[in-house]
Amino acid sequence: MLGTLENSIRVRPISSELSILGNCDGSARVKQGNSSVMVGIWGPVEVKQSKEDPEKCVIETTVKGATGQGSPLDKMYEEAVRQTCEQVVITSAHPRTCIQVIVQVESEDGAILAVMKNALCLALMDAGLPMRSMFAGVSCAQQENEELMWDPTAEEEEESTAQYTFVYENSRNNVIYVHCTGESTVEQYMLALQKSRQVATEVFGFYRESFEKLLRKDVKFQMLLPPIIKGEILEEPE
Amino acid sequence: MSDTARKEIPDKPSIVVCGDSFAIPPDKDLTVGPGLVFRNNSVTCTKPGVIKSNDKSVWIDRNNRRYVPVLEERVIGIIIGRVMDEYRVDIGGAHVAMMSSIAFEGATQRNKPELKPGNVVFARVIAANKDVEPELACVNKKGKANGLQVLEGGHIIQCSLGLSRKLRQHKSPLTQPLFNHFKSFELCVGMNGRVWVRSDTNKHTVAISIYLKRCEYLCVADAVMTLKQTVRALG
Questions:
Q1: Across the interface, which of B18, B21, B220 has its CB nearest the CB of A125?
Q2: Are B91 and B105 in the same domain?
Q3: What residues make up the domain containing A181?
């Protein structure tokens, strides 16, 4: 996996588990190196009357850090997760309902926002919610010698002068979310934006592989069905 | 438009993910089913799953856990209350469904079944719209019960929507093995992922429930093997 990238781009191995939580409608865990995030989704479910929207479904997000203590950063992540969800999920398909998203950071070692977005995308797809496209988060850090480093660890992030997180979608290859910290020039930003797209394409391939593994059983079942002989199925007498 | 838009819909069932699009010849008359959106002479997938098509239609088959009511589907509901002449029924969806208290065969304002919270009904969805609450009835269009009824006794298990669809298939490979092991049993499968089981003895009911729950994760051959073991263990 992730083998067709340019030589200058190195990312950590990515792995995923789907449908891991029994009570959720959709769930996923994504690990990139030592960063690990689990996402659970309930929805569409009933919503409190005060929050109800007659036009679209409401998305409620909760982000829990690895330490378990709440922090202002978690609130920022919550907003980031909600914004991405609202852009991608077709919210008009289930009006007057609510989608609850819970993001649990299990271990944090750099590129956490990108890992969060990847886990979120897999969980949303696992829940079978209607989506316009998939999306993939890519983190990259700019070092002091102006070289870019993709999927940085916590240590590398600390040494860098600027960090970027881009989220791409796959239907038109657009950027749908950007988060930057640190100092950089426009040229450096544009370079990071262009090159990160390659990583996103690889991640989309990885999503497809994950779902192929999950759904293989359903395709096999199709082969077991007896052939339908015309006239054999009795229509329900109305 | 990206390269993927020029692909044709595959003949065999194959796996797709969100954002994949397939071209449809402009002269072809197709019904676009669940999981797909029609746009610019092509269909775009909105959920991952197995794409299936025939001459008339194309749709995505995907095993979900949350039920979204669809017109004319048969569901198993649990009564949770009563408002005037209507019952409030839980069908596992986002909203509580309503059922008229006289929506039973032969029921009149004076002579109608009295249901209490906790009673289970096998009913038909007669109104399903995303903007209003779903509505149920225990009669078909001609006012006959036709299998729709209040389910008494038995045991309900919750499974995924995909499994309940598989069980409802004609001559499903999942239900056929049950006929070899049990002389008499009743099975009622709702499209909302609820399965109601009743048999002569509690042992048989338990054995069938365990088997159905295992079908969720095992392939057919393995599940049948565990069915034999369960029957032997329970005696």
A1: B18
A2: yes
A3: 14-225
